[in-house]
């Protein structure tokens, strides 16, 4: 676990949690490019989930499923809490979105409203207590 969490990471978290997924990607990509492991893969997992949610908002279901899957696969390698983030919470909510996309019929996909249905909550990055 990193000792000093960069300010840009928390900016990316704020962008993510306010639904600014493309901006979050840009912020975390800059960190990801310069980071070393294990932080590098962690940043990449979070930014892939952000891009997956961005694709979801644009009804790019294939892109959303691919990026959500890749991001979740990367974050699964981390403990329950990493860098002050509740990883399990993020994984739980983003996997719900992924499974919903995978199981929905094509005609149902356009009706999905992320965060407006209790069965499809908007994933958030939650700080661990």
From TrEMBL:
<dbReference type="InterPro" id="IPR005500">
    <property type="entry name" value="DUF309"/>
</dbReference>
<dbReference type="Pfam" id="PF03745">
    <property type="entry name" value="DUF309"/>
</dbReference>
<dbReference type="InterPro" id="IPR023203">
    <property type="entry name" value="TTHA0068_sf"/>
</dbReference>
<protein>
    <recommendedName>
        <fullName>DUF309 domain-containing protein</fullName>
    </recommendedName>
</protein>
């Amino acid at each position: 676990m990193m000792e000093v969490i960069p300010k840009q990471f928390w900016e990316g978290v704020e962008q993510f949690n306010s639904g600014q997924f493309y901006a979050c990607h840009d912020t975390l990509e800059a960190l990801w490019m310069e980071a070393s492991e294990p932080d590098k893969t962690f940043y990449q997992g979070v930014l892939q989930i952000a891009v997956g949610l961005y694709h979801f908002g644009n009804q790019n279901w294939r892109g959303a499923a691919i990026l959500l899957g890749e991001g979740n696969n990367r974050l699964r390698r981390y403990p329950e809490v990493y860098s002050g983030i509740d990883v399990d919470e993020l994984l739980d909510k983003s996997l719900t979105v992924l499974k919903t996309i995978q199981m929905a019929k094509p005609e149902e996909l356009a009706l999905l409203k992320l965060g407006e249905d209790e069965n499809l909550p908007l994933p958030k990055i939650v700080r661990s207590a």
